[in-house]
Design brief:
Blueprint lengths: L19 E4 L19 E4 L2 E4 L5 H8 L6 E4 L5 H13 L4 E9 L2 H11 L7 E8 L5 H5 L11 H8 L12 E4 L2 H5 L9 E9 L6 E4 L5 E10 L2 H7 L3
Parallel strand pairs: 1-4
Antiparallel strand pairs: 2-3, 4-5, 5-10, 6-8, 7-9, 8-10
Protein name: 2634_t:CDS:1
Organism: Ambispora leptoticha
Length: 241
Amino acid sequence: MKPSTSSLPQQQLNDLSKISFQKSKLKNAGQCQRRECNNKTQTQTINFKLKYEYYCSEDCYWKDIEQLTTTKAVLLDKNDMDYDRVAKPFKEKLPKSKIRAILRLQMPHSISKAHRECKQKNDYKATHKMYHGTSILCNAANFLKGKQDCTIENCGMCGITAQGNQSSFSHYGTKMWFAKNPQTSLSYCSGKSKFKAMFAVDVIARDDNEILIVTKNELTLPRYLIIFTRTKWDRYLTCWC
């Protein structure tokens, strides 16, 4: 399978300085984190730890995006319920991998709006949860600290975080490839760093296939970024994807 290591050319990496990095630890667990909302959110105690929802509803999630002109990247606390939602299916397929961080990505309103409008069209109603592996060419530790100092052209992690999946920046024509199984996408998590990057992406498509290939940007919306390290067992699995 051909990978789509979407990335940004050098002149557009300046957008990284505008990414809003935050942590999801709350001042008031159980209260919606949208500034204009005072509603309660769902909480649950599991193994003596309070798990919480960041927003009270999907509506508040999307309303928070309406004001965004750049990507909002939230470093998830392990007690954020979104962390478990992302980590569990990933670890089921790659049990020996070690998740170092999960970031919830809320893309700029222009990107999110185009995706939602596309979803409402009759021909594209099904949204599939897919994975997209890409390169890390910068210092991932600095990235997680909110130090957006990436000046490396073709750094897939930084490019997709800033602008989403862009067919014009694909290394393989205009085709962008997404896999339902993270084992498949693992082969394309490239770079010399010990850290690997994989995006959890909503992909709109008619068919429910293990691999989806799309050429339109609005059919995709990155939702989470998983940064992880691999073991020898993971590398063995890669050979059989």
